[in-house]
Amino acid sequence: MFQLIRPDTQFDFVGKRHIWVSISGLAILATVVLFFTKGLNYGIDFTGGAEVQLKVPAAWDIGKVRSELDNAGLKGLRVQQIGEPSAHEFLVKAQGDESSLNRVSSQIDGALAKLLQPKEYEIQRVDVVGPAAGSSLRISGFLSMFYALLCILVYVTIRFDYRYSPGAVIALFHDTVITLGVFILTQKQFDLQILAALLALIGYSNNDTIIVYDRVRETVQNHPEMKIRDAVNRAINETLARTILTSMTTFLTVFALWALGGKVIQDFAFTLMVGLIVGSYSSIFVASALVVWITEYQAKRAAKMAASPQAKNRKNSPGAMRAQPKLQS
Amino acid sequence: MTRSWWSKLLLLVFFTGLSCVYVYPTIANLDLATTKFPFKQKINLGLDLQGGLYMVLGADFNKVFKEVVTRDSASLQDRAKEKGIELTSVKTITEGLPADDPHIAVEFNPAKRDELYNLIKNEFWRFRLADEKPGRFEVGIARDYRVEVRERTINQSIEVIRNRIDEFGVAEPSIASQGTDRLVVELPGVREIDRAKDLIGRTAKLEFKIVNDKAMAPAQVAELVAEIEKTNNLSYKEGQKFSEYVKKVNDFAKGKIPEGNEISFERTKNAAGQETSRIPYLLFSKTEVTGDELSDASVQFDQENRRPYVAFSLKPRGATQFEKLTGDHIQERLAIVLDNIVHSAPVIQTRIGGGHGQITLGRGDGDEVMKEAKDLAIVLRAGALPAQLEFLEQRVVGPSLGQDSINKGAFAAFIGAIAVFIFIAFYYRGSGLIAAFSLLLNVLFVLAILVGLEATLTLPGIAGIALTVGIAVDSNVVIYERIREELRLGKKAHGAIEAGFQKAFRTILDANVTNAAAAIVLLMYGTGPIKGFAVTMLIGIVTTLFTAVFVCRLIFDAYLRRMELKGQESISI
């Protein structure tokens, strides 16, 4: 039998939870700071603008296109080479109002047609997003993330317990925020595709968390005498092989997409790669630590209540029923 | 083996065979037109893979509402007059109001207040009373009617654009509404990008206006425009907004042309789309009949003269308007104005009653006249766009980039899947092979369902399939790790497998349902390629549940049976 993790492995994940949570907290804080200082490099999907990808002959001076466009009433005109230098592919980016943006592609086409033979160049891709469309895409994009998180919160609450759901959602929030942080750091363009990748990540990373939670729930049921922190620790260790294996296989496929899938999909795959690592980490270190905290806090409160004079009246309330003594620390 | 095992196997073989049939035309890249293969359907490639045009258009409702208010205020005036209610003033006001909620201010004799109130209440359900002062009502568009106008406008626009695209023969276009005021137009495989854009870009508004030849002869109008251009140093250059030029010309012409008149232009363009001539017209600003009163237009051929002409018919209300209009203006010219550009200005020969008329075309060589007739018919038939549309988003992917994406994407997904197969077979040995086989089936099923649902495969969709493989392994891993645990607890192979599958199922279900929740949100909010990703993810989740639980179990049962027959106790996991 080939094993990555020996079955009797007993890492003390929960015992060091303060360290892990502090690291995560710092990472989130850093992202927030970066978000307000450096900011996300929004793509035209969210800001509005035009992007034209074109291919020209070898050793041809792209500056000619630039000078043709200089007096077209566009702002923020940028021409950059993309992909392999041998491919001679360029990306022309511009900002402007709706009417000037609408003309960008025909202007570039016109400029190229004037300077080159039709077979020598190719306009490979044109993306034009009006300013109004950009802002509405941004709003609906972030809304969709919010709804995805909400759905998961509701599902976890129904399927598990209210003690588990905050951990699951905070873990997802953690993954999304830190992945965004990496995007701010690398200043990669944040566009609709990346948003889709983040949403896919929310689903995937939650999958990871659920599997750990499921085992925690099972352990708690089977060993009522166990302290919650021991139960969580045991569950994490038992599922550790699986967590690592699955992350590895998924990472393999995403890595293949990143390395071989072509530049259109490269950033998409990059997001998934980063998210996979952060997501696996959060399932082990963050989500479960939160379950321990919430359960212990609850048990403490229940104990306090039991000691107080009104305990008798409260005993029949649902809150008191939920706090099972066996979960006490 | 038990009977139930055999029937399950039969089911699996059936699904697998069916999937192969579905996927074969795509994999073998059959030419659907000529192939003898009975199943004639291929996977739909998204715009990002086959190249094509994606655009989002927004309708300008502010203008539509203003028009609705103005039109209805005229009929309110008429009805009030018939009822003997004196209205001292009826005005459309927009100042200080939201742009999409213009009002009509009606001033009247305060003694007749209740009568007018009842009239509006009973006959003008489209209005709501927005404000009242003694002797003055302010009415706006009622909420229900606003919704109706929006819906009608969007639907009509979809019809019109579809009609127009059909005229030019774009294969499998998709035009759909998005939200309350947007249209999404997708033209897959369109190679002549600029032509298609131009085609949709011409989404325009059709109006009929009378040419005021009595006030100024055509030559005088041309002189006036030339003079305006000269004295104000005004000229029009290619690439500028033509409407701005027209507006400036009209601003400068104020005072030189009669009140309630405007200057509009007819433009002819050569094959390259460059302007060859520009003819000014002096028109009465009032729109006599709008394009939505037209019901049909078509090119007919006059056998006697051997010339084409355009026959058109009108809806009942339009027919009445048209009869009155043509009767009042015999021998005058009627300008057909599309998007504020004069398209043609035929002379009204007779009163046109009964809602049917025809337009004969000027002299010229046969082909040219035929083309002109066709264009005019398209303008009349499809040009009845009630609202102006503006481009909000345009995305074009060239066919070569699309091909490049599909090659690289498919290759990467293939390599990724192979890597996973090898890894899993290495890690779990015999059982790993079972998992790899079930993964292979998984991919086959995903593709077959994509074909069956006529869903669209996009580049993120390919990524979704790759990711499905990665995630599907998870279900296998969960099950296998469980089986290993049960074996460690000392269970026999049979018992361990039984318990492993049973205990893992709940976990797998929970994990996949939450994954599906995220995918559904993506499906609802995503556009274009992203939707493709969500679709493959969702399909992948379903097939994963099927293959990891049902298919694997089936094979494991056969495997166990073999072991038992051989008298072996352990399994390779």
Question: Can you walk me through this structure?
Answer:
The complex is a heterodimer of chains A (329) and B (573). Chain A has helices at residues 17-37, 44-47, 63-69, 98-115, 131-159, 165-186, 192-222, 228-260, 263-307, 311-314, 318-322, and strands at 41-42, 49-55, 75-82, 89-95, 122-129, 189-190. Chain A starts with 16 loop residues before the first helix and ends in a 7-residue tail after the last helix. Chain A is of the alpha+beta class and 329 residues long. Chain A has a four-stranded antiparallel beta sheet. The longest helix of chain A is centred in the last third of the chain and has 45 residues, at 263-307. Chain A folds into two domains: 17-42 and 134-322, Multidrug efflux transporter AcrB transmembrane fold, CATH 1.20.1640; 49-128, Alpha-Beta Plaits, CATH 3.30.70.1130. By secondary structure, chain B is α+β, with helices and mostly antiparallel strands. Chain B folds into three domains: 3-51 and 400-566, Multidrug efflux transporter AcrB transmembrane domain (Multidrug efflux transporter AcrB transmembrane fold, Up-down Bundle); 62-146, Hypothetical Protein, Haloacid Dehalogenase-like Hydrolase, Chain: A, domain 2 (2-Layer Sandwich); 204-385, Gyrase A, domain 2 (2-Layer Sandwich), CATH 3.30.1360.200. Chain B is built from 14 helices and 19 strands. Chain B has helices at 3-27, 47-50, 61-83, 113-123, 143-167, 193-201, 218-231, 242-253, 316-328, 366-382, 399-452, 459-488, 493-525, 528-566, and strands at 44-45, 52-59, 87-93, 103-108, 127-133, 136-141, 174-178, 182-188, 206-210, 261-269, 275-284, 289-290, 294-302, 307-314, 334-338, 341-344, 356-360, 389-397, 456-457. In chain B, the strands form five sheets. In chain B, strands 11-10-16-15-9-12 form a six-stranded mixed beta sheet. In chain B, strands 7-8-2-18 form a four-stranded antiparallel beta sheet. The longest helix of chain B has 54 residues, at 399-452. At the A-B interface, helix 4, strand 5, helix 5, helix 7 and helix 8 of A face strand 18, helix 11, helix 12, helix 13 and helix 14 of B. Strand 5 (122-129) of chain A pairs antiparallel with strand 18 (389-397) of chain B, so a sheet runs across the interface.
